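step=predict obj=Aldose 1-epimerase n=300
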Amino acid sequence: MAEFETVTLRDPSSALTATYVPEAGMIATSLSDAGAELLGQRRGLQAYVSNHKTMGIPILYPWANRLSSNGYGVDGAVVTLTPGTGGVRTDEHGVPIHGTLAAYPGWHVTTELESQLTAELDFAARPGLLASFPFPHLLTLDVTLMQRTLTVKTTVTATTGSRVPMCFGFHPYLTLPGVPRAQWQIETPTMRHRPVNPWGIPTGAAIAHPATAEMLGDKVIDDGFDEVVDGSVFAVSGGDRRIEVHFDAGYTAAQVFAPATDEVVCFEPMAAPTDALRRGGYREVQPGESVTAQFRIVVS
């Protein structure tokens, strides 16, 4: 098994720690509260590196969730995606899923402090990445751990004359150690449900979703949403612990995922809905400009 250097952030105000692995795609592999692990470990880091089996908090970039075909068009240019090349991977139906940066080793750490980690990835210098997403830009992740809060700030800077589509997201696998899944309560904000077909692609329908609090019980959830407003809060609680995911800014869509096969729940911040890179409906970073999106995980 390959060994990777890790960076562990420590909250000065509590026993909370967060561990990142920059050379394995800037994935967060641990969020620990006095030794209690709050991130789903699933198959572990090696399976993520070898087979892109997600765990912890991976970045989904440059698109989150699925695309409905192996190609998309932006500003008149057509991009063809080749599964197995340039980081493109597919799901069981053969459609591209979760972008191209799974376990990508090319991140450069620029700041490493007790409670802060910053790393960047220059797409303009990576021909393999540009083949699947031909929009030169600088991608920066800035992570801080303070006041029992993990803050993840993502900045996209367009470095040439090309506009850069914003369709990325994150996939935090949250768990409540010592509390049976059936006893977890989940809370979701007011937003809009986007039903999908059997391949997980939105049908085009839209259904209002009011703010909801419910026991997870034996429910299996894999639902997409849009019209998520800045400041929306998702939460899971049980026993004496509560974990909130705050969509502070820039995440207008979400996926809520609670599989039957693992004791995890995911509130996935997404900068655009599923398949937006093909359908439109995403923001663009204009040439020479930067756009930042932020979410926080608050442990109480």
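step=describe
The first helix runs from residue 45 to 51.
step=end
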